[in-house]
Amino acid sequence: MLPSIGRRRPYSIRENHKSITGEIMGIATTNHPLLFFHVLTVVCISVLFSSVFVKSSLIYPLNCSNSMQTCNSLLYHNFEGLSMEEVASFYSVNLSSIKPITNGLKQDYLVSVPCTCKDVRGTRGYFYDTFYRVQKGETFVGVTGKIYSGQAWKAPGEEELFVDGNRVSIHLACGCAERDFQEIVTYTVDEQDTLSGIAELLSTQVSEIENLNSRLTQNPSFIDVGWVLFVPREKRGIQTPKKDATNSDRPVIYSLEEIDEATQSFDHSQKIGEGGYGSVFIGILKGQEVAIKKMKSSSSKEFFAELRALCKIHHVNVVELLGYASGDSHLYLVYRYIENGSLNDHLHDPLLKGYSPLSWTTRAHIALDAARGIEYIHDHMKERCVHCDIKTSNILLDRGLRAKVFMIVQRLESCVFVYVVLSLYLHS
């Protein structure tokens, strides 16, 4: 099945640098004045070497399932200034079928529609049809981009039907989930989106999005603005165990037997890193992939300082501490494993290590993620801490290339992290 090219607003590296680096400079000038001059320099260099290009929406309609011909589906409407009443009118639905959804600083809409397996001029897939009255000078690409978030299928001859006064059918791509507890959301990738961010927004897992959009997500670290994805959303949200408020800051205490089994008795093949405070091993603990830092007993003072601080950190840009174990002359910290290695690996000879070079946009996102994690550690914890070892090997990247700070805590007066931002731009 061939993809459909619809319309989305023009996109350029130059424009994207303007929005992203503006945010970086806001952080730099507000909290770290010296950082501003470094960022300004590297941004000017990066803009000089960027080029302008325009892309359109890319849609692969979802194949029909023999067991599911019709269903209720959701269309994600990116806010473009339309009121709920106007959205209802354009989508031919009642107001009760539209639910607001907060995405960052803006409010978008989820539009519930009946989705049907049908043939649209030779293309078989799941679609929802609505109607639109063409105004003077309007085009298919203009209408689908402004009103339907680039989710309309452009069938052969569609553009010729856009004549002033014509009432035309708009075929919107939708989908039916094969599992009762899920519903499909048609989502158009926007600037600064990542698969992990989309998954969090729509209550699903990155792997679920990848499975349903294999043509577009063969490289999970790359998605492009304007791609139309089908997202299998959990109807009741992702269920997580409820935490006891009195114990929410207390880590899990593991047994030495569990640690030993998880690391295969600390086999050398399980070792993934080493630092001043100990070695790090990968392992499976209670069905979850983890990173276990093994520390000598002489490090107990640092260990417990780190433990007390880290167990109180719950932030998307800081590596999560799951628990610890002690005994046998060693202490062990158990962290959530971050799949994509360190930023250092992606900046220095990435091809030799099996990684693709980072794009300018991804570098800016990583710089912002790291800054947010460090800002949280420094300014928003009850007991303010300072990360005294900020370097690219302590910035880890998840599957969506979002950055998480791996930290060792000490209470000092200041810490400089300009190096991370400079590295992102100078190691290309």
Automatic annotation (TrEMBL):
<dbReference type="Pfam" id="PF07714">
    <property type="entry name" value="PK_Tyr_Ser-Thr"/>
</dbReference>
<keyword id="KW-1133">Transmembrane helix</keyword>
<dbReference type="InterPro" id="IPR011009">
    <property type="entry name" value="Kinase-like_dom_sf"/>
</dbReference>
<protein>
    <submittedName>
        <fullName>Lyk 9</fullName>
    </submittedName>
</protein>
<keyword id="KW-0418">Kinase</keyword>
<dbReference type="GO" id="GO:0005524">
    <property type="term" value="F:ATP binding"/>
</dbReference>
<keyword id="KW-0067">ATP-binding</keyword>
<keyword id="KW-0732">Signal</keyword>
<keyword id="KW-0808">Transferase</keyword>
<keyword id="KW-0547">Nucleotide-binding</keyword>
<keyword id="KW-0812">Transmembrane</keyword>
<dbReference type="InterPro" id="IPR018392">
    <property type="entry name" value="LysM"/>
</dbReference>
<dbReference type="GO" id="GO:0004674">
    <property type="term" value="F:protein serine/threonine kinase activity"/>
</dbReference>
<feature type="domain" description="Protein kinase">
    <location>
        <begin position="266"/>
        <end position="428"/>
    </location>
</feature>
<dbReference type="InterPro" id="IPR001245">
    <property type="entry name" value="Ser-Thr/Tyr_kinase_cat_dom"/>
</dbReference>
<comment type="similarity">
    <text>Belongs to the protein kinase superfamily.</text>
</comment>
<dbReference type="GO" id="GO:0005886">
    <property type="term" value="C:plasma membrane"/>
</dbReference>
<dbReference type="GO" id="GO:0045087">
    <property type="term" value="P:innate immune response"/>
</dbReference>
<dbReference type="InterPro" id="IPR017441">
    <property type="entry name" value="Protein_kinase_ATP_BS"/>
</dbReference>
<keyword id="KW-0472">Membrane</keyword>
<feature type="transmembrane region" description="Helical">
    <location>
        <begin position="35"/>
        <end position="54"/>
    </location>
</feature>
<keyword id="KW-1003">Cell membrane</keyword>
<keyword id="KW-1015">Disulfide bond</keyword>
<keyword id="KW-0723">Serine/threonine-protein kinase</keyword>
<dbReference type="GO" id="GO:0019199">
    <property type="term" value="F:transmembrane receptor protein kinase activity"/>
</dbReference>
<dbReference type="InterPro" id="IPR044812">
    <property type="entry name" value="CERK1/LYK3-like"/>
</dbReference>
<dbReference type="InterPro" id="IPR036779">
    <property type="entry name" value="LysM_dom_sf"/>
</dbReference>
<dbReference type="InterPro" id="IPR008271">
    <property type="entry name" value="Ser/Thr_kinase_AS"/>
</dbReference>
<feature type="binding site">
    <location>
        <position position="294"/>
    </location>
    <ligand>
        <name>ATP</name>
    </ligand>
</feature>
<dbReference type="InterPro" id="IPR000719">
    <property type="entry name" value="Prot_kinase_dom"/>
</dbReference>
<feature type="domain" description="LysM">
    <location>
        <begin position="185"/>
        <end position="231"/>
    </location>
</feature>
<dbReference type="Pfam" id="PF01476">
    <property type="entry name" value="LysM"/>
</dbReference>
